[in-house]
Amino acid sequence: MAKRKEDLQQEFIKGLWRDNPVFVQVLGMCPMLAVTNSAVNALAMGAATFFVLVGSSFLVSSLRRWIPKQVRISTYIIIIATFVTVTDFTLEALVPKIHKELGAFIPLIVVNCMILGRQEAFASRNSVRMAVMDALGMAAGFLFALLSLGAVREILGEGKLFGVSLFGPNFEPWVIMILPPGGFLTLGLILLFFSWIKQRKQRLEQRLAQLESEAR
Amino acid sequence: MKLKEHRLKLQAAPLLKQSMTTGQTMRDVLLALLPATLAGLWYFGLGALLVLIASIAGAMLTEWLFSPAESRMQRLSDNTALLTGLLLGLTLPPALPLWMAFIGGAASIGLGKLIWGGMGQNLFNPALVGRAFLLATFPIAMTTWSPQSGPTEFFQIYASNLAAPFMQSVYDGISAATPLGLMKFEQQSTGLWALVSGNTSGCIGETSGLLLLLGGLYLLLRRDLDWRIPAGILGTVALFSTTLYIVDSTHYPGPLFSVFSGGLLLGAIFMATDPVTSPLTPRGTWIFAVGIGVLVVLIRAYGGFPEGVMYAILLMNAATPLIDRYTQPRVFGKGIKNP
Q1: B137 at A interface, C-beta within 8 A
Q2: Is B333 left (phi over 0), alpha (psi -120 to 50) or beta?
Q3: Helices then strands (H, E): number in chain A?
Q4: Which residue, A15, A170, B182, B323, is most buried by CB atoms nearer than 10 A?
């Protein structure tokens, strides 16, 4: 039983860090770049994606025995679209202002390749518990990525975080950061940072292995 | 752990045993820029010097920080970071806050050079990448031009130079339009002598046409420069703007004004000729130069900005690999068609 529990934890953690959908798999770039000009928008988008991914992973995994192989992709899309519609109307009812700012990107969650990828690669082949854990991890990783990008862009672009001014009224905004190039630049620098960490870790491991073999 | 001193010191090409190394070429270019730089300092005072120092410091610190520890000094000693910082500084307005100039220097080396793989790998001219970044990031500060200070006010620093990092700058209140701005928005021309001697407002290094040409001549004599690029750019601009001038002389400036105003000479002589980002073959070089000339006049005449040299050069930089591919000389012994 203990091993099962560890497995579940592993499925969750891998989405957060090792296989992070944005920083490592580089999936779901469209919402990532388009709606992260402020932290609030990023949070709303992340939450919407979170709900859709977890819901559809659950449903796909529980229906996996009855979905015919030939039409599986369209079935996934229908399931995802159902959850997206629910999210769309919920956001419109609760937070109409944010819903308006996110615009077309809420319906576009349907074609987020990260979500479809998880259904095809994981949820359709694993038990419901594993699939939900995986979806939770991936969605949390996506939310974390959106939020970090949105925070950097809002802090530099407007001197605020979640609408709260950080540096006082004299702050000189970096206009480029709230424009599309700022999204590309920030994302690129974050990816650079991640691959730097990865390389460093690999090098350390190599060095360690070398030292061990020398010690023998 | 102490770092081992490398016995075999690798530097960027050309590796031939001759006096013309990368460092030597860069020293030549620095020397050629010296008269125009001094003129800029004479016209704009100590504030301009501080802007230049800040942008050079940004460039060199970034180069130092992101180079492998064992080759840091080696890389800094080839003077490319120094030259990039200086070129960027010369394209900045003299009253720019120093922290912005510093960030510009860091962006030009970081985003313009190191991200592509370092010296010789970059697609765009690093100094212009830094300037484009600054223009998109701080559009107001980058287009606020100060009038020239007289010799008596040499030691006065613009109040906006000393703005605290990340804070807005306070301007002295007086601003002066550049000759190109006057032309575009008020249809008011500036005298040729003022343009040639540099007695106008504008970026630090772009005011004096005569001294820039002098620097270009020096580079030409030292063979550090492909003469086709400045000749092609200046010729195209002169020809194209003459055509426009004949069509409508109230809205479009004449050829001499076009050539000597704004950053055209600085860009044509010192930036477009960057050997890394310009085509290799003579035929490709002509295409590149004519493209820049046409784009400069198009942007100046029909674009939203009064000046278009930076974007023209960056756009043609992007086209350089394509030009190189289509102008490859025929391999001896092969057929007429490209292999």
Answers
A1: yes
A2: left
A3: 9, 2
A4: A15
The size of chain B, in residues, is: 339
In one-letter notation, the amino acid at residue B113 is K
Q: Please answer whether residues B119 and B12 qualify as being in contact, where contact means their C-beta atoms are separated by less than 8 angstroms.
A: yes
Phi, psi of B167 (to 5 degrees): -110, 160
Q: How far apart are CA B230 and CA B228, in angstroms?
A: 6
Nearby residues of A90 by Cβ (< 8 Å), 6 or more positions away: none
* Whether the Cβ atoms of residue B112 and residue B61 lie closer than 8 Å to each other: no
Which residue among B136, B166, B169 sits closest to A181, beta carbon to beta carbon?
B136
Q: Is B315 helix (H, G, I), strand (E, B) or coil?
A: helix
Q: Do A172 and B115 touch (CB under 8 A)?
A: no
Q: Domain segments of chain A: what residues?
A: 2-165+173-215
Contact status, residue B145 vs residue B201, Cβ threshold 8 Å: yes
Predicted TM-score (pTM) of this structure:
0.85
Chain A CB contacts of B169 under 8 Å are 172
The pair phi, psi for residue A161, each rounded to 5°, is -135, 125
Q: How far is B170 from chain A (nearest CA, A)?
A: 10
Given CA atoms B114, B119, B121, B126 in this order, what sign does their dihedral have?
Answer: positive
pLDDT by residue for chain B (339 residues), tens only, comes to: 556 666 777 777 766 666 667 788 888 899 999 988 988 888 888 888 999 999 999 999 999 998 888 778 877 888 888 999 999 999 998 888 899 999 999 999 999 998 888 888 889 999 999 999 999 998 888 888 877 776 667 777 777 777 777 777 776 666 677 777 777 777 777 777 777 777 778 888 887 888 889 999 999 988 888 889 999 999 999 999 999 988 887 778 888 888 888 889 999 999 999 888 889 888 999 999 999 999 999 998 888 888 889 999 999 999 999 999 888 887 777 766 654
Residues 6+ apart with CB under 8 A from B306: B178, B180, B181, B183, B184, B185, B262, B300
Residues B136, A176: C-beta atoms closer than 8 Å: yes
- Do B92 and B51 meet the contact criterion of CB atoms below 8 Å apart? yes
Paired strand residues for A160: A165
List the structure tokens of B76: 């800094």
The 3-class secondary structure across A57-83, one letter per residue, is HHHHHHCCCCCCHHHHHHHHHHHHHHH
Quick check: ipTM above 0.85?
no
Q: Which of residues 184-213 of A touch B (CB under 8 A)?
A: 185, 188, 192
Domain ranges of chain B: 19-176, 178-327
HSE-CB of B333 using CA atoms within 13 angstroms: 0
